[in-house]
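User: what does the whole thing look like in 3D?
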Amino acid sequence: MPSLNDSLGKMSPIPLKVNGKTHNVDVDPLTPLLFVLADELHLRGPKFGCGLAQCGACTVLIQGKAVRSCVMPLSALKQHEVTTLEGLGTPEKPHAIQQAFIDEQAAQCGFCLSGVILTAKALLDEKPKASDEELQDAFSNVLCRCFTHTRIMQAVRRYQAGLA
Amino acid sequence: MTKQFSRRDFLAASGALIVSFSGASQFVVAQGPFATHPSHINPESLDSWLAVAADGFVTAYTGKCDFGQGMYTAQTQLVAEELCVPFGKVKLIQCDTSITPDQGTTSGSQSTPTNFNSENVAQAAATGREALLAMAAQRLSVSVDQLTVADGIVHAPSGAHISYAELIGGKRFEMTVNAKAKRRSPADWTVLGKSIPSTDQTALMTGTFEFVHNIHIPGMLHGRVVRPPETGATVASVDEQFVQHLPGVIKVVVKTNFVGVVAEKQWQAAQAVKVLKVTWTPATTPLPLQKDFYDHIRKQPSRQLMLVNSKDVDDKLKSAAHVLKATYSYPYQSHGSIGASCAVADVQADRATVWSSTQSVYPTRHSVSVLTGLPLDSVRVIFVRGSGCYGLNAADTVSYDAALLSQAVQKPVRVQLTRQDEFVSENYGAACVIDQQVAVNNSGAIVAWDCETWSTSFGGRPGYDKPGNVLTGMLAGLEPETITPKVAIEPTGELRNGNNAVPSYVVGCVSGKCGGAGSIRSERVLAHAVKSPFFTGPLRSPLRLQNTFAHECFMDEICAYLKADPVALRLQHLSDPRVMDVLKAAAKLANWEARPSPTRQTAHTGIATGRGIACVAYEGDNGYAALVAEVEVDQASGEIHAKRFFVANDSGPISNPAGLRNQLEGGVLQGMSRALGEEITWDDRKVTSINWQTYKTLPLGIRVPTIESVLINRPDMKATGAGETTITLAAAAIGNAVFDGTGARLREVPFTPDRVKAALAARG
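Assistant: Here's the predicted 3D structure for the full assembly of 928 residues, as structure tokens:
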């Protein structure tokens, strides 16, 4: 496994802009972005669900797109800024989509929320009038295993109504 | 003699946790009786449950924790209500073996019954209120019956008043919990019974909530495990040469068949376990074929349990005007927690601390003690929420993984399972096959019900003495619990229907006492437990769901045979008013049209629509629910789409209606996912459903059905569970609705398009 050894050996600080702040992280550039966010920066929004880009729990926003950080090597990020769930708003001042989810009490365990909220935000930022079918399509590989679906969809529609 | 935890140790060890406590709570923890005697939290003592700080904030200690089902908020309401303090002044400390009383495992819809009926948290808070009133009476020189209390302030008729903080703030009660302390009447409730928003929502939505996955301990390393690639494989050898020189790798750990790697960073550990060369010895026998599995299990030696036997069933069947028979089968299913399990352990030479999302902190403490060889008093397990677990997912096993790896390096280690680890490590919901048979007379009444079930079992909850009941314990060399075959004896004592093996429609008579929900007098239910090739354990509504699926679909078959309305024939054979009430309420909510199934639609092509109903007395007496499903079936593709659900639920007095609805709705849809797609699959050597492409769950992106619920509030009754009622009914209600719409009967879960098409083709 020489290539693995080589890649693991490369350690030099890499600049990384997350939620408005620039950090220098000293990790193997092939490290998945999720591990950097969670283990190095101690961010709690993006979570390890499957590590296979199949569930959405690790979702972050990059250039306005919902991206699965568990399969994205840090080196693939280039210089783009990353926004995590905690980068949208704060407990004191939640973003409108977070407020819509709070108003609808749209979580049970809440582990899925980066996938749910950031996927919805990315879609609705681009298409504020997205149809039910477009939402279903965006959520086709987002999981909520507590099946809080009814409240999640109410929260998404509440946020969408506020965009009009 | 082992070193006891000191207050300093507590703070040092729980740095990540303590920050989430309020200042008041920190004070209370410091003053609490537990930091010095982790093994001796006395449930008789009021101070074990409750503490009032100098600023009036109340800390309550509970052994029942919140996994996302709203128990934190509901229990906070309970304490605020019984103690008469504002909701916002109560903090809970949940499930920490050094701080909270041992309330066993948070499971089985038992948290609300345990803490809301006349015991434990509720009784402690009521005792506290009475004690504070007695103190106030003395201080204000008036009799107790003249005092009123609200918001933690006791008022005398003269206008004089004194606060709880002044009465006891910062001091212990030094008294025992009074089993006779009077509970507040539901008529007087100001905090309970209200839809108080769940306390965790803002932190969850803004990504600031701390899950066990987010625990960081100074100096923490990262571990990954290597699971056997095939079921039952054992370690032949481990060759470390390819990982020894990888950057960051600290240690390869092997203990019997347990293999793991510790590294400085998670990515390094993840790479190392891929490179580590482990040679495995395959199991001596292959796995039973999945396609024949239900036939296989009914031929195995079994531990038999006769639940009811009126001894006249065979005669009734012989002489009956009509006999109906059917067999139902239900697969192994996964808890499928969205987050693969994670735990952090800090095992040092003389003590261990484990941060775990287990449902069982105290039993886990025993297991960690056994696995590490440390004395019980030196082990502390702290609950930190993980992703929704719905039962015995891999949270226990990963806690053991973390403890073993941490012990090997004597440093804190965080272990994150991979998706595949989780799917092969957990204790699946049991596969079952269920034979049903009834005798029906000429006037359309069911006169005898005969049911024989086979369920699979291996391992299970470790409890206080069986760490081998989950994978890591067994891999480390500890024996799992297995089935000892045993012939059934006649039932004695009283009816035990905790698994809902006994259908609601029989009288359920044992030793002359009838505890069933129905009126059919001739009854026989024989349950077989058979050794499972895979670990099994409780999964939301364990066996209750499987049995209820079979009972409620078979009842529907009987209704169809008799051309009777499914609600009317159920009511005709029920006697328990609470089941009858939910059944009637759900039918009313759904505008149920009284008629037999199937509907008169005859076209065998296109989209068919139908409705179905099911009801249950959960565990016999721990919650009552009925569910109506309205579905569309695409007869070309075999796909089922549920459009609407109607729920009626009775769980006794309702603590938080919005929280209850959230549980009922989630239960319906999780039940729908389990009914439509979820199934563990395997080949001759290994489990093959190892990710979200091979284990089929419904995603968020579906046409989400509407769910309407009617909540029957019974303030005069004991509180029951509510988290498992609706999930128990979804498969049956959907299956019955498919029959109503198409005339095709589904007897095997999941209702995959192929199975639906086969059933449609079998209509003739």
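In plain terms: Residues 1-7 of chain A have pLDDT under 50 and may be disordered. Chain A touches chain B through 73 residues (CB under 8 Å).
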